[in-house]
Amino acid sequence: xxxxxxxxxxxxxxxxxxxxxxxxxxxxxxxxxxxxxxxxxxxxxxxxxxxxxxxxxxxxxxxxxxxxxxxxxxxxxxxxxx
Length: 82
What we know:
Blueprint: H1 2-21, H2 35-55, H3 61-81
């Protein structure tokens, strides 16, 4: 069962990064702060966090959280320069 969670975690990890870093058509912002975009990020990283805890129960939750925060920051940096 743990192998299944590891597979799902890495599949979601790769999909999240591919979607986050793929070019998207330009859509003019309708609001100053786009809540749906933030909700999508929260849902994606929430699912990734749950899968990480299930796939790697021996890892501390603090470590998982810090690594996922670092991944989120890295995605933002790559999006800025990309």
